[in-house]
Each structure stands twice: as C-alpha cells, then as structure tokens.
Amino acid sequence: MGLTGIQIFQMLPKTNCKECGVPTCLAFAMNLAAGKAELSACPYVSDETKQKLATESAPPIRTVEIGTGDGAFKVGGETVLFRHDKTFVNPTGLAVLVSDDEADDAVDAKLKRFSDLSCVRVGIVLQGDAVAVRSVTGDAAKFGSLVGKAKEQTKGGIILMTESAEVMAEGIKACADRKPLMYAATADNADDMIKLAKEHKLPLVAKAADLESLAVLTEKLSGAGVEDLVIDSGSRKIKDALHDQIHIREAAIQKKFKPFGFPTITLPFEMNDDFMMENVYAAMLMAKYAGIIVLSDFQGHNINNLLLERLNIYTDPQRPMKTDQKIYEINDPGPDSPILCTSNFSLTYFIVSGEIENSRVPTYLAILDTEGLSVLTAWAAGKFVGDVLGEFINKSGIKDKLQKRNIIIPGYAAIIQGDLEEEVGSDWNVHVGPREASNIPAYLKENYGK
C-alpha cells in the first residue's frame, strides 16, 4: 500500500476491539500497510475513511484486467522497484501474435500451440495469457474474421492491434464480450480510440514515439475518462526499451508521476528478426519490468523457459510456497507399503513425490506442515521434529490401514529418529532414508520393491 502503518493507524477508530483478528488497531494498520490484511476486516471503520484509504493507498501503477472468466489476467498493481523489497504483484502477460496476412494453417497452428503449450511447476499450471491479433492488410472484415477465430479457438485474453479506428471497431464487434485490450491510441487517432474505449468500457494502449510524448498522451486519455491504460514507449531497440521500462517504473513508484502510473506493453518481435534473440529480449524485458510481452510465436523450447522465469520473478519471497499437510497415496499403496516423510515446502514435495513415482513402489507420503520451510530449515526452527511428526502420524489414521508399519525419515533429519520412535510407539519401525531425493527410487526398490 502507498501509506505507512502509522498514517493508516491515524485514520482507524482506535477501539482495539480485536474483531479484525489482531490485538490492536496499530497492529492491524501495520498489516494493512504490509498488504497482509484487508480494510473490510475492521467492522468500525467509517465510509469516509474507506474512501480516503482506497484513494490514497492505491498502488502507484494501476491494475488493469484484460479478458473475462478463466481467461482473464491482470497486469500492473506494482508498488516496488525490487522484488525483495516486498513482492511483485501481477505476473507479466505473455501473448502470441497472429496477423491477418498469415496463411490460415499458420494461424491455426499458432492458436493450437497457444492452447496446448503449458507446464506444471510446484503444482502450478503455467501457460500463456493472450492472443494478439494484428491488422496488417487494413481490411476491417478480414481483421474481424481473424479476431472471431482467435476468440473461438482460445480461452485467453485478446489484444486488438490496429491504429485504424474503423478496423478496431470491427475487431471489437467480434469479441467485445471478452474484454479485449485495444492497441493502440496515438496522438493522431486518440479521439476516435477514446470514443471506442469509453463506449465499450475497454482497456486501451497509449503508444508514442518517446517518453515525453507518451506522458502527454496518457494525460489526455486519462483526462478524457479512459482510466484503464497500458503504455508503449515506442522503443524498438532493446537498449532503449530497457531504459524506458526502468524509467517508467522509477517515475511511477519513486516520483509518483501519474502519467506513467500504468503497466507497459513491449513487442520484442519488432526488435529482432531472429526468433531466439527475440526470446532473449523477452526474458530481459520481463525482468525489467514489462507488463505484457507479445511474441511472434509460442514454441515449447521458448515459452516454457519464459514461464519458469516469470514464476521465479513473481513468487513472493516472503511467503514460502507450501502444500497441504496430509498423507498422499503414490503408486496405489496398500497395507504393506512404507510411509516416507518430508516437509510441506512445495519444491520438496514435488521433487520427492516425483522420485517416488519414478520408483514405481507403492508408498505413502506424509507431508508435515512446516509453514513452507525445507526439511533442514524446519528442523532448525523446531517444526520438523520427532514429537510433532509422530503426533501427526498418530492422528492421521494411517495406522489402521497398515499391517507393516514402516516410517522413513529424511537422512538429513536422522536426529529426530529417537523422538519419533518414542512418540509413535513400538508398533512402528522408524528408518533413516536417503539424504538426497535422487536416491529415493533405489532405496525404495531395494527395501520395499516386490
């Protein structure tokens, strides 16, 4: 949020009623400032305060939503320059380009790849966000037909790329219900694009040749009542584009320069003819600080790398990714299957579960809630310890499913063996397993394989 905890505290009723879930209004204000609470949790805050806080605490970069339903995605809403200061909020939107001068089979192939290409990382499905439909021919009917095809064959957002108001109107007609992003308003067509954006309540891209002209244009669009803006500085050389992205972000966040308080869109396909270099540029722009990136194509070898980079950049560094505490069944375990234990750090869970699957040995995987910490870190913090793990095993009900009761703990946590044996009782055999997950398949096959 834009306000400090003390500034927010001064606006609160100061009743210390505890109904918000924390002991004092000051603690609640600090949580609000850190983005860890919602103002609606306070039952006594006045409507006037709500309105004032909503205005003054709005992020310096506006949040813009594109698309509808499951295909919707948000860009902007950022409050910091560096991820470690707090976190980045809305991941960069990745879009694939189709043009009305491309052959039908080439367009169909791109749209199919857009829908099919995805990967799973730490339990999260990663995929592209939008199809950018570009008018090259200037034929409004042809453009509208291509937009209709993109709408029919994909579920993501749609970006309409033309500077002709007549062509844009035809594209909007084909997909207005999908809330497309209009690209782009310029100094020459601004009045016509403003009219279309306001009539259909759509987000609009402001495009200029340089930053000074861009600021003038965004002020004109905002003054005309178009609030949901995305901005394009017009740079088509990577050095200039990076400079502009950084300057826009710094101006918006550090200087509160409202004409640049919007997410950005970049077009690396216009910066280099080489497909691999285009993707190198995309990776650079994602790090500094593109809101949307439009690529000439999606291929497995390029889009997966960008999706993983995006996941790494936009994962909150202050909140470990974690899975649910429970006992998972892998490879259809039965009454003679062992129980392998680990923490609920997501990466640990998916690595360990993957190695168990690879072993093809029926196994129960007991995941203990360690607040998202890895095994050694959780042990050091007193969260992955024998008595706590034993209590979880005892309460899980797994004992009633087993005839042979074997528990396997990570090799790096061998020190908890005695406490775990004492907690679960003599009915259980506690074994120290491998230190490295890569050794799990061989260990399971040797000791529990048929």
For this entry, give a set of tags.
Rossmann fold, TIM Barrel, five-stranded mixed beta sheet, 450 residues, 16 helices, eight-stranded parallel beta sheet, 3-methyladenine DNA Glycosylase II, Chain A, domain 3, alpha/beta, 40% helix
Write a brief caption for the model:
Helices cover 40% and strands 16% of the residues. The protein is of the alpha/beta class. The termini are far apart.
CATH architecture of the largest domain: Alpha-Beta Barrel
Count every helix, treating DSSP H or I runs of 4 or more residues as helices. 16
How helical, in percent, are the residues? Answer: 25-40%
Give the integer mean of the pLDDT values. 93
Tally of DSSP β-strands: 17
- Main structural class: alpha/beta
The number of domains is 3
Q: Kindly report the spatial arrangement of strands forming the biggest sheet.
A: 10-9-8-7-6-3-12-11
Anisotropy-based shape: globular
Question: How far apart, in Å, are the first and last alpha carbons?
Answer: 57 Å
Low-confidence stretches: none
* Oligomeric composition of the shown chains: single chain
CATH topology of the largest domain: TIM Barrel
Biggest sheet features: 8 strands, parallel
Any idea what the CATH superfamily of the largest domain is called? Dihydropteroate synthase-like
Integer-rounded radius of gyration: 27 Å
- Write down the CATH class of the largest domain: Alpha Beta
Strand percentage lies at 15-25%
Helix/strand layout:
Elements lengths: L4 H5 L15 H9 L13 H10 L7 E3 L6 E3 L17 E7 L4 H13 L1 E4 L2 E4 L2 E5 L5 H14 L3 E5 L3 H11 L5 E5 L4 H11 L3 E4 L3 H13 L5 E4 L5 H16 L11 E2 L8 H13 L4 E4 L4 H15 L11 E5 L8 E5 L2 H14 L3 E6 L6 H6 L5 H11 L9 E4 L7 H8 L4 E4 L7 H9 L2
Parallel strand pairs: 3-6, 3-12, 6-7, 7-8, 8-9, 9-10, 11-12, 14-15, 14-16, 16-17
Antiparallel strand pairs: 1-2, 4-5, 13-15
